[in-house]
UniProtKB/TrEMBL annotation:
The keyword Transferase does not apply. It comes from the Bacteria. This is RNA 2',3'-cyclic phosphodiesterase. Residues 10-21, 293-304 have a biased composition (Low complexity). The active site is at H150, H235. A motif (HXTX 2) lies at residues 235-238.
Length: 304
């Protein structure tokens, strides 16, 4: 009996000791789940930059591994640097920019129609005194250069280039027996004379000049080509008006020259005015007619 009681009492003491030990043990706070809330703005920007960097890295890797197949070859990888070089590399047969511009100007196709005219060219010893009188021009007059002065015989506004040889043969045929012409200058005038004139000119005269101009016009029309329909008036153009400008008072000239050739000229329009190039020259080598011999008088008539 005594032994049993001791055992029970021992068990009761052990339980009390365990309870006392648990009462003095430090308590550990319970672990709770972290609350998830919105990220700060700086963290969001960092995440966006990271996403863009990763996407760029993936794109660069994909570009480096891009496969292309050259003509007649096998597929091989091409890096981004090599592709950029091939894109900006100029073809071997391509000229530099400056030479390409010059080549484009040289390769400009010729016009489909030519502006031509038969004319007498004015020599320097006559053109220079005329140029001195051009100094009297005022306002919007554009003077003709001395080396461009001429007497137009027949004007052809639009000639196919392939018909140029026909006009050369025509000029040679109509001038082969003509002698040189003595050209004389007269006074100045205007076209039109009434109202606002467009052209300032000086009149010229020469024996046989009107006949030559008429024969050239008829010959051109016989070839089926168009000519100017205005009546022929021999003159030398001194200036053209481009805007309001006063008239120059009338002038007269005591000048002239012996025309020994007729030319076929080409007119090329420029912003500064037309320029003229000689296509062909026809020499006047005919023999001038002999002067009329004085008529002989009867000696008996003289005595009476």
């Amino acid at each position: 009996m005594t032994r049993i009681r001791r055992t029970a009492k021992g068990k009761a003491g052990a339980g009390e000791a365990a309870t006392e030990s648990a009462a003095h043990r430090p308590t550990t706070p319970p672990v709770t789940a972290a609350k998830t809330g919105p990220k700060p703005a700086q963290a969001q920007k960092k995440s966006a930059r990271t996403a863009r960097t990763e996407a760029s890295t993936r794109g660069s890797a994909a570009e480096k591994l891009r496969i292309f197949t050259p003509a007649g070859g096998d597929a091989r990888p091409e890096s981004q640097h090599t592709a950029s070089q091939n894109q900006h590399r100029a073809p071997q047969n391509q000229a530099p920019r400056g030479k390409r511009r010059a080549q484009q100007q040289t390769d400009t196709p010729p016009p489909t129609r030519l502006r031509l005219f038969y004319a007498l060219k004015v020599p320097v010893n006559v053109a220079n005194p005329l140029a001195e009188r051009q100094r009297q021009l005022r306002g919007n007059w554009r003077a003709v250069r001395p080396d461009q002065m001429h007497v137009t015989l027949t004007y052809l506004p639009g000639v196919p280039p392939e018909r140029l040889p026909d006009l050369v043969r025509l000029g040679a045929r109509l001038t082969e027996h003509l002698p040189p012409m003595q050209v004389t200058l007269r006074g100045t005038g205007y076209f039109p004379n009434e109202g606002s004139p467009r052209v300032w000119f000086v009149k010229v005269e020469a024996e046989g000049l009107d006949r030559l101009a008429a024969d050239l016009r008829a010959g051109v029309q016989a070839l089926g080509l168009d000519t100017e329909e205005l009546p022929f008036k021999a003159h030398i153009t001194l200036a053209r008006k481009k805007g309001p400008a006063p008239r120059v008072p009338p002038l007269t000239f005591d000048l002239g020259w012996q025309a020994s050739a007729v030319t076929l000229q080409r007119s090329i329009l420029r912003k500064t005015g037309p320029i003229y190039e000689t296509e062909s020259t026809f020499r006047l080598r005919g023999t001038p007619p002999a002067p009329d011999a004085p008529t002989a008088t009867d000696p008996q008539e003289q005595s009476t």
